[in-house]
Fold each of these.
Amino acid sequence: MTVTVRVPAKVNVQLGVGGLRADGFHDLANVFFAVALGDEVTAEPGEGVTLTCTGPDAASVPLDDSNLAARAARLLAAHHGVTPNVRLHIAKAIPVAGGMAGGSADGAAALVACDALWGLDTPFETLLELAAELGSDVPFALVGGVALGRGRGEILEPLPVAGTFHWVFAVADGGLSTPAVFRECDRLREEAGTGSSDADVPTPDADPALLAALADGDPVALAAALTNDLQAPAISLRPALAETLRAGTEAGAIGALVSGSGPTCAFLAKDAEAAAAIAKSLEESGTCRAAHATYGPVPGARVS
Ligand SMILES: C[C@@](CO)(OP(=O)(O)O)[C@H](O)COP(=O)(O)OP(=O)(O)OC[C@H]1O[C@@H](n2ccc(N)nc2=O)[C@H](O)[C@@H]1O
Ligand SMILES: Nc1ncnc2c1ncn2[C@@H]1O[C@H](COP(=O)(O)OP(=O)(O)O)[C@@H](O)[C@H]1O
């Protein structure tokens, strides 16, 4: 028996970052948006947990127990008191360390795949709790669509959305570390004199104009409302990202922002044809390693 699960990458159409909490996390107003660019995780009977990975970035994916797919398999087995026996394979299309939650996606996919392979029938609410133990972005990869993440991003509220939006993702050479980008955000706030703790920074909230744009299926209004508090820190660590953003805008994107903690840049296009043209221009611009046209929203991790 082989179980195959498809799982989406995400872009954060709003990423409001609050102050640094005592536990080392930041409270967020994190509007996640799932896109069709995604990974496929297969699970087959095996002995212990083994893992293989293919795809353009496969060489930078850890294949040991630190891989989120392997951690997910062990966590699910431990929750049910069963022995984790599974051969996992990741067909990886999501850029690694790119701010598109690829590792989180594989963790969510492995939860769903192992649950089916082992016939556990775990309630969705329990899968969400296990996902939150694995990482702040993992619950959203189960839910998909568009959702507001509060707390560290794990407390999810699905949001109404109409129609399909067309995106282009420009993949950079090399990744950025998520904790390093959050630290740079704190450092820039200290430098600006505003303070960086949760006593100094107001708790962020979702922007009503952004929520209306999503509900109306209006790409021009969504483009105008895109914001990411981690964009300035990501550019501070990787100044070349400003060139990539400019190249996409010059190629006709109606909106541009860094995806999550970066360094992938996300561009909103008015339609599928414009997205294909923007991807081609970005590849020719020499400001990124590759550019992919895609669309969303799409569902979360599902057996295919
Ligand atoms: C920034 C975001 C936006 O969706 O995504 P990426 O850009 O990484 O894809 C997420 O908040 C990333 O979530 P995820 O990658 O799951 O992070 P976790 O494993 O939970 O945490 C890794 C580290 O990031 C920092 N962190 C993460 C989440 C959060 N709300 N506040 C934080 O300060 C902490 O330093 C934490 O130790
Ligand atoms: N299945 C996985 N795929 C990719 N990276 C993984 C995976 N499991 C663990 N990692 C580790 O997580 C780090 C962050 O990767 P990723 O989730 O792709 O990026 P981001 O947090 O920027 O969205 C990687 O550098 C890698 O060391």
Note: Residues 61-62, 66-69, 90, 96-104, 106, 175, 178, 260-261 surround adenosine-5'-diphosphate (ligand 2) (CB under 6 Å).
Amino acid sequence: MIWGRRALQHVKRFKRLPFQPEGLHRCMSAATQNLVVEMDGKSGVAVVKLNKPPVNSFNLEFLTEINILMEKLENDKSCRGLILTSNNNKIFSGGLDIMEMYNPQPDRLAEFWRTLQGMWLSLYGSRLATIAAINGHSPAGGCLTALSCDYRIMAPGFTIGLNETQLGIIPPFWFVESMINVTGQRQAEVCCQKGLMMTTEQAHSIGLVDDVVPGEAILERAHNEMKNWLKVPDFARQLTKRQIRKPTMDRLIAKRDEDIQNFVQFITKDSVQKAMGVYIDQLKNKAKK
Ligand SMILES: CCCCC/C=C/CCCC/C=C/C(=O)SCCNC(=O)CCNC(=O)[C@H](O)C(C)(C)COP(=O)(O)OP(=O)(O)OC[C@H]1O[C@@H](n2cnc3c(N)ncnc32)[C@H](O)[C@@H]1OP(=O)(O)O
């Protein structure tokens, strides 16, 4: 993983925090600044709850925190599975922090995007069995995070989708490929071009979500499903996953710098900044009502 200077500063700070999953046994919980982690040493399953109010939006620091945790879990031989959910029972994740993209400093903007790429690469390519327990709304970057897992369970009454085009932005190719790989080409064409935010039931009907379970039962269902995934020998499951996901990951690895340049160039355009300003005003005004 390639880290920027600012992210490395954050890593040093984070390393002093108490969470150390290696060698943990039985149930242990730990919290970093924006993540609640419950590690069951017996089953080897870590439950990670996104816990960054108000909407679990991903800024540079939060993404860095997630990347560090992923690295720790990957290196912890006792950990076999990861259930990703939210500590907020209404919002899984509001996606990327829009404030990172408004009036940005180009260096930080580039670092932000590289760190997001890093998060996607580590979650999409994780050796762990990964289940998203989507217990709230999940637009854009929230949807990408869920798409990066092996299995998705969603509570009814919420919405999910790659809605970038609705905001006048273009979902990068690795967002779109993540959707294609889950729903198939035709469904991905429709929902990515139209920027559809789908209800839980609509997402289930196109295969974006594998299972629909009431919010209060979602974690229990995720643990039961995890047992099925962990019945398969890890090595066989991991290599099969790698075989299937490697071409998509390799495309981003080969174009990582180009993808960052495209992103920075696009976001810093006057027209995009203007549209972003209008969108932020709408969000803030809606929140005030
Ligand atoms: C070929 C060239 C390619 C170039 C590449 C270019 C590409 C760019 C790609 C970029 C990809 C972008 C991905 C993204 O993820 S963009 C973010 C998209 N997310 C959204 O649009 C979500 C917006 N938020 C909502 O829809 C709702 O807030 C909600 C998440 C459904 C929650 O609703 P509710 O519970 O009613 O809460 P509020 O709306 O009242 O919001 C509470 C406060 O949170 C702030 N907020 C909400 N979302 C975000 C966000 N994403 N980032 C930062 N802040 C957010 C909101 O403003 C409220 O703040 P306030 O209390 O201070 O007013």
Note: Residues 1-25 have pLDDT under 50 and may be disordered.
